[in-house]
Amino acid sequence: MTSPNTEAEHVEATNLLYRDPALYDVVQSDSTSAGMCQTLIELHRPDARTLVEFGCGTGRDLEILAKRFECIGVDLQPGMVDYAHQARPGLDIRTGDMRTARLGSRMDAVTCMGNSLAYVHDNNDIGQVFATFAAHARPGALLVLCSPVAPITRTEPTTATVDTPTGSATVTIRHTWDLRTQINTMHRHWMLPSGDEARDEIRRRVLFPQELERYAEGAGFEVLDMLDGTGTGLTGPTAYTVARQTPR
To answer: Is the pLDDT score of 4 beyond 60?
Structure first.
């Protein structure tokens, strides 16, 4: 297992949005993850009052959830946490590695969204992450995950325009898929308003549905549902998984 500092530096180096948290907030402003997470909690554990989010980034989703729950956020990257403290000073957000973090408290809901789980590639490390989830879950607590469950295998690049605080940027994206490691790599080429260019190479581990279920069950959770938010079941490539901690 790499050290938290080394891992944080690596993740930041591969992703422009992590190096520029303000840009991250703008690009992710249309995310529906917080709303979906709250809907699942209200459906399966309406009496939930406390929540911890692992991989909370800038606290964008946590800020929404904090209107309903008493929240703590944890993120690996000090730069993201520092930005969150400045942009959202009312939130309790801490720097920590979700493979090893122990906050000393158990919550009604444990969440991990925004592909955070997909940045953990090693099987043993994934097991440690689920052990962390269990260590922070009260009896009957809900676990809500958002993670890739199928690869993006199209080979042709796509191009989009992205509004940024300094003007419009253009980003071209292509994906590669390594079946042996189950790593889906997103290659991004940015043309920024300043005229500068930037390149990303973001590697995400795909955990197929039965793998997710096995890791969850191994940590004492019973999977209640997997859905992609479209209302048509589970079609991929990203899914929400909701599970409940069971007595062991």
So the answer is: no
Q: Give the up-direction half-sphere exposure of residue 74: CA atoms within 13 A in the CB hemisphere.
A: 21
Q: Tokens 């007595």: give the residue.
A: 247
Mean pLDDT across 229-243? 84
Q: What is the pLDDT of residue 155?
A: 85
CA distances from 161 to 63, 168, 190 (A): 27, 6, 10
Please tell me the predicted confidence (pLDDT) of residue 24: 83
How do beta strands 158-164 and 167-178 pair? Answer: antiparallel
Helices 209-218/123-135 angle, 10° precision: 50
> Where do we find the tokens 């459906």?
43
Mean pLDDT over residues 155-181, rounded?
92
Closest CA to 71 of 28, 109, 32: 109
Query: How far apart, in whole angstroms, are the C-alpha atoms of residue 193 and residue 165?
Result: 10
